[in-house]
Amino acid sequence: xxxxxxxxxxxxxxxxxxxxxxxxxxxxxxxxxxxxxxxxxxxxxxxxxxxxxxxxxxxxxxxxxxxxxxxxxxxxxxxxxxxxxxxxxxx
Length: 91
Fold this sequence. Notes:
Blueprint: H1 3-11, H2 18-37, H3 42-59, H4 63-86
Helix pairs in contact: 2-3, 2-4, 3-4
């Protein structure tokens, strides 16, 4: 057996389109910015990150895209609650 046959069997199908790859990177960026926005200006960071997550979810369906939208929603709630309870600025 050649090395190519072993790697293709071990990793499964490798047919990913460009839009799926780009949407994965956008979803990862949205997750990072959403988590950062919990503690620093929630409206300024989480809302655009949530929009990026929705664009990524529209480009390709997947677990990462769904997780980005859910993490963005939870981060918005937690960020607003934390900012209001501590008296920090929302914007």
